[in-house]
Design a protein that fits this description.
Two copies of one chain form a homodimer.
Chain A (H helix, E strand, L loop, with lengths): L1 E6 L7 H17 L4 E3 L17 H17 L4 E9 L8 E9 L2 E7 L23 E4 L2 E7 L19 H7 L4 E6 L7 H16 L2 E6 L1 E4 L2 E4 L3 E3 L5 E4 L6 E6 L12 H22 L5 E4 L4 H14 L4 E5 L7 H14 L2 E4 L3 H11 L10 H22 L2 E4 L3 H6 L12 E2 L6 H11 L8 H5 L12 H4 L3 H12 L5 H8 L3 H13 L1 H4 L28
Parallel strand pairs in A: 1-2, 2-3, 7-8, 8-9, 15-16, 15-18, 16-17, 18-19
Antiparallel strand pairs in A: 1-14, 3-4, 4-5, 6-7, 9-12, 10-11, 12-13
Helix pairs in contact in A: 1-2, 5-6, 5-11, 6-7, 6-11, 8-9, 14-15, 14-16, 15-16
């Protein structure tokens, strides 16, 4: 059969916009000869809607829009994700459901059975799970209609299943001839390959076609990568949509397999770059803005963010601001200017020495006899943050913050200073990966100046300051932090497998624990790893923890 | 029998401190003749530990500490809350459990069956629920050992139960003679009375003694009120611990009922005040600090926070900072000075005009031809935030932010300006309640100057500015916001029941939706209502929502 997979980019709560997009894609699918077209999980309301699900009118609107879509496109069968009210007298009030639309009506509804509630997922907070799964007869097929996580509990794939039921297996035992899965499965590095391997295992072990449509686009910190796919009964790929763009994929489920490119560390890194670009673009635009402002220090983090912003929003929509102090090297200024020139973005300079001096004088009576310390370093950073926010206010553009995951882990960043911004573009990118992404940006010629990439990292908040004054080199630091922040390893295991001294490891882990208060006031972070700062990583602040 | 209820204040992750506290209270209970002493849910590790539960060493430590407590206090039977590893081969890896300790050993363990996953609760994220409940024989009794939510699904009390099983009913049907409940049940306004009414319904409808011990103390935004209680088979109170303080309550379960004071709106308000004091004290101290800094505007919000801080930390540990601008009225300065004198706190003045002018001059080349607007108002606020943070850095004291729930709802506050701080003390207090709490502070004489309470509210960021230039009077605004923010009512219902014009209601709700980005970068908010900003209220930023 000819199957359509509509990999669309909905906006949370934009029922009118999402509805029109769904109708338009469904009509195109009909025109291109598809008999059935699939839309992602919660395509009608956008994913994740979070506590909007606690609002009755939100859920009611979702139900109404599904009926409107059915009436608007009677010429093709549609499966689309939406939320609906639960009719049970006990439990949660909402269901995460898939509607089958045909001949102008909602003919069949299947609710989601497995509700993820780990990392960024809170679905048990909102949804009553399906009590049972039913087959959907369509043409000569009996369809297993599943929603995202429903297909993520395969006993052959996972070492330790999270749930004691596998809806896919149940449906196949009941006679399903094809598995359909509508997803809103967010990206992290390596996830597209993992997802496809997992679905191929399901196809192969049951000998059935598996079709999965995934949402694409950014919603706050989450980026959905698309990568919708149809797999043959032997696990081979019958059709595959692109990453990080909307697409209507039409696949003949009886067609031949198509060759698949290999993935490796390099392709994963490219995925991360595209995720950051799409995440930045959608965050800015879905917030109702067009333009972004970035403080340019001459360093690699702000240079990479400027390149991402230029690719996401267009160079004409990016303003770079240099805010040199007496501690800024001349190299930093020339590097930042060269970057702006390479990218073709507007650049402005606002020196901060005068403002710093007036703060210094205002505070002097209270600081008599006290030595200079971190206070004065943070003050410079906060002056810069205040200038960027003034520009944001006056020009109606969002500030993008430039801190990386290494800095945010150990607190090597200033709250209300360099942390200001609407979005922490690199908040989930380790410093060592920042360099790799910068090299990728320069793949066709220098955009980020070579001197930015070759000089040692420095915050330039006191004379001659280097990051290595406070921290080990990032090649040493990042593996320690990654093991702790992403994999929750203990100090002694980290010391053993990284080869770093136990004292150093413990000192770094203590910095992580002491910086939680900064992270809780950080801008939303674009998630590109399996464990990002933000809603998927929840730690208390006023806690006492041994490391 | 003589039952001990140890209403203690543990710190999350402080296994050594919590263990010593539990041992000390258990010994006291034995000395005072109790046969059995109860400690709160997760007393061993503190509640809520959040994602620390994903760390194997954290859970292992919890198991070890329970065994150590058993060995340390063999002279009395103990029931204590802890977390333990799940031994299942499927599902979540941790259990929320109660251990019964006797004769130096762990003799019995009951796991929690009902795991709350709404508002601030995420327990399904971590815990595998109990598959069954078992009775604990003790002396001549058969104890129903339940953990917090296990007792919150009574079919006689709730209109619509959240869970399809009632563990208390199951245990009573199996022959339980007494219900024990160990809780970490956080405070909100009216909750202590609700909790007790609910437990009294359980006692009465089954005709059994019900004993509930509750944690006390602040952990980040949550404040636990204690109010541990023993109820007789007729629902009367046999013993009751105080609110908001640690206490070892010893109750004879065969003893007489004691008279109970009535609760009303006034006593609820006093509870809120005590919650704010305890929450502030514990946040500051559990973060390792002793002192707080507050920007004093001469207005009621900062005056109330200063009074709370003085009560929480001692007047000698509070620094008030006046940062007047050219728009500050002379009344504001004299009011703030009078407040500081009344409270006996140190006060300093740092005028901001000079700093504002240097910012203004630095930005002038970029702002040529553009009119003054919100930018310059925010700039003043951010200069003040930067000064407060400089003092915080240099003096090693935490900044307390002073914004109230009304302002945070509509975004009438400056991100990185007046929103800076380690804790948003009044972030869950409506402006109209701020005035009531201020009156309570003045119950025995003027601490907050009368002129602060009687003058119209103003941000004083431009000449003659009044809050009512941008917003309706708070008597009109607060009911609108409360209906929307706490009860998720729709605009037309709000207009109908408040009598406010639909246009005004919609305008205010739009402000709420547009301000979400500010709230997500706010300091932790002390929760004192059923729906507070913070982790219990999760909304996306980049969304499009009709109001």
């Amino acid at each position: 059969m000819k199957l359509g997979l509509a990999q669309i980019n909905p906006t949370v709560g934009d029922f009118e916009g999402n509805k029109n997009k769904i109708i338009q894609y469904a009509r195109q699918a009909a025109e291109r000869g598809a008999e059935l077209v699939l839309f992602p999980e919660m395509a009608v309301c956008g994913y994740p809607p979070a506590d909007f699900l606690d609002k009755q009118d939100f859920v009611q609107c979702s139900e109404e829009v599904v009926a409107e879509i059915a009436r608007a496109v009677p010429e093709i069968a549609i499966i689309v994700g939406f939320v609906q009210r639960s009719t049970e007298s006990v439990g949660k009030r909402v269901r995460n459901s898939a509607a089958f639309l045909k001949d102008g009506e909602v003919k069949f509804v299947q609710q989601k059975m497995l509700l993820p509630y780990y990392d960024v997922f809170d679905e048990q907070r909102y949804f009553e799970p399906a009590a049972r799964q039913e087959l959907l007869p369509f043409d000569s097929e009996k369809m297993a209609v599943t929603i995202c996580e429903d297909a993520w509990n395969d006993g052959d794939f996972w070492l330790r299943p999270l749930y004691n039921v596998d809806p896919v297996e149940l449906l196949l035992k009941a006679g399903a001839t094809m598995v359909l899965n509508i997803s809103s499965s967010p990206f992290h590095r390596g996830k597209p390959a993992l997802r496809q391997r997992m679905l191929a295992t399901v196809a192969r072990s049951h000998g059935k076609v598996v079709a999965m449509v995934n949402q694409v686009g950014g919603n706050d910190g989450l980026v959905f990568d698309g990568n919708s796919v149809v797999l043959g009964p032997d696990g081979s790929v019958l059709g595959h949509a692109q990453s990080f763009v909307e697409e209507l994929l039409i696949v003949d489920t009886d067609g031949p397999a198509i060759p698949q490119p290999e993935t490796n560390a390099d392709t994963e890194l490219v995925d991360v770059y595209h995720a950051l670009v799409l995440g930045t673009r959608d965050y800015v635009r879905k917030c109702g803005f067009e333009r972004a402002i970035i403080g340019l220090s001459g360093g690699v983090d702000s240079a990479l963010v400027a390149a991402i912003a230029a690719d996401a929003l267009g160079k004409e929509n990016v303003l770079g601001v240099l805010m040199p102090s007496e501690y800024s090297s001349s190299g930093s200024v020339t590097d930042a200017l060269a970057l702006a020139k390479n990218l073709g973005i507007r650049v402005e300079q606002i020196p901060i020495a005068g403002t710093f001096d007036t703060f210094d004088a205002a505070l002097a009576p209270l600081f008599t006899g006290m030595p200079r310390d971190l206070t004065e370093e943070n003050l410079q950073s906060r002056i810069r943050g205040t200038l960027l926010m003034a520009l944001s206010n006056k020009l109606g553009a969002l500030v993008l913050s430039t801190g990386n995951k290494s800095e945010m882990s150990v607190g090597y960043c200033t709250l209300y200073g360099d942390m200001v911004g609407a979005l922490a573009v690199l908040g989930d990118v380790w410093k060592t990966d920042v360099y790799k992404l910068a090299r990728y940006v320069n793949r066709d010629g220098e955009r980020i100046p070579e001197s930015t990439l070759s000089k040692p990292p420095s915050a330039e908040l006191r004379p001659g300051q280097m990051d290595t004054d406070s921290l080990p080199p990032y090649e040493v630091l990042d593996p320690i932090l990654k093991a702790y922040v992403e994999h929750y390893q203990q100090a002694q295991d980290i010391a053993a497998h990284t080869g770093a001294p136990m004292k150093l490891v413990q000192a770094m882990l203590k910095l992580v624990e002491r910086s939680e208060y900064k992270r809780q006031q950080a801008a939303p972070v674009l998630k590109v790893t399996a464990k990002s700062f933000g809603p998927g990583r929840r730690f208390p602040i006023a806690a006492k923890v041994q490391v």
